[in-house]
């Protein structure tokens, strides 16, 4: 803490410095002034919490200094030190909220007691000031959130209490319940994606500051965040003002600030802002993204497209067979047909419908193929160029990539399943080599065609199932022949041959020796 001593007599200043126990009271810096004028300069520079002042001084006396301190609303505690028990001095000290009044010569106990009480009171008031400041800051920060919620309920559900229009008139100079207003929408997603890496909070903060500054200057209305829709900034503009001129100004101000073209949907003046919102929302959702002209500041009813949406579900069979074929080319041909139709009606509504239907198809096919994977996210895909305009080419490329991802996922899963099935067949052959196994038996057991099994087995292991069975039997026979107590016919029977001569013939063909010759050459 800091303290200042203001007195034209040097020995008085030195006396206060000497008698006060500064360290005990937490005061680490002290300053001196010879009169009120010098004190003013030092107070402005150092802002002391405790000030001692004499009453009779040249240039600016103690009363004038107290008056100045009161007018400047300083939070310091002032202790008057005077050699006079003058009623006028005391009255002035009380009038200008002096904390205490000490008489010269100064009593050390009275001085330190006054300092202790002044410091304690200043700290208590400072704590209250901090709490008040934090409370004010919290209220200030919460107020936009409060209006976002209240006004979103009003425009979306037409729900509001009777006091809201009065508060709006007082707060924003506009009463939607008592005057016609235009409800206009700004689509913030391109700004969020391009400028803030998808952070919508930062995009709203930036654009709301621009909009509300302009609307407040013109006393024309208010801008707020629609809590019911993640990409809509809403403008309520009084009919007293020219909506077109305000929107042109906002469009220009936003472009100047973020260097991006934003989409603004302008509703007509209405005495029901819920109805006005539905109108502007239709403009925003149904306008053709590929037909936006940069030179125009906002969209109107004329920009609503009545073209039917391209439905993915209408092409589900074509897509299904293209995916089942495993051919990227076939899939691309189907997609191109769909994308060509979608481009003619490419709106925010079209994109949402596409994403919803793609999610349904994706989930269906993943379930059919028993694949554990999540459908692609559609909400945060960036289809916009750096200047904020929509790119149909990016949209097409993203959609193709999503389907390519799906077909690769399904093909990979199908290949893995097939690989697992062929592996299981080989394990089955290994475990049943003693039996009279036929290709037909295997086909029936694994619910696969003989042709498919033969082809995939040869691809996977480089040999036919017949060769595989033969090699397993011969290797097992070699092991059994190491046992001198087993007869050749017993070995033959153990590896699946009922005829000893046939076994010997097969063994010689594979090994180059008869079973007996092979056994005779084994080390003893």
Description:
The structure is a single chain. The protein is built from 20 helices and 9 strands. α7 crosses α8. The protein starts with a strand and ends with a helix. The strands form 2 sheets. It has a 5-stranded parallel sheet with strand order 2-1-3-4-5, with helices on both faces. The protein has a 4-stranded antiparallel sheet with strand order 7-8-6-9, sandwiched between helices. Helix content is about 60%, strand content about 10%. It folds into 4 domains: about 1-130, Rossmann fold (3-Layer(aba) Sandwich), CATH 3.40.50.2300; about 160-305, 2-Layer Sandwich (Alpha-Beta Plaits); about 310-400; about 430-520, Orthogonal Bundle (Arc Repressor Mutant, subunit A), CATH 1.10.10.60. The model has no long low-confidence stretch (mean pLDDT about 85). With about 525 residues, the protein is of the alpha/beta class. β7 (about 220-225) and β8 (about 230-240) form a beta hairpin.
Topology, pairings included?
Elements: E1 2-6, H1 10-19, E2 29-33, H2 36-46, E3 50-53, H3 62-71, E4 77-82, H4 87-95, E5 100-103, H5 108-157, H6 163-172, E6 181-187, H7 189-196, H8 200-218, E7 221-225, E8 232-238, H9 243-258, E9 263-270, H10 273-286, H11 316-325, H12 328-343, H13 348-368, H14 392-431, H15 439-446, H16 450-461, H17 465-481, H18 488-494, H19 500-511, H20 515-520
Parallel strand pairs: 1-2, 1-3, 3-4, 4-5
Antiparallel strand pairs: 6-8, 6-9, 7-8
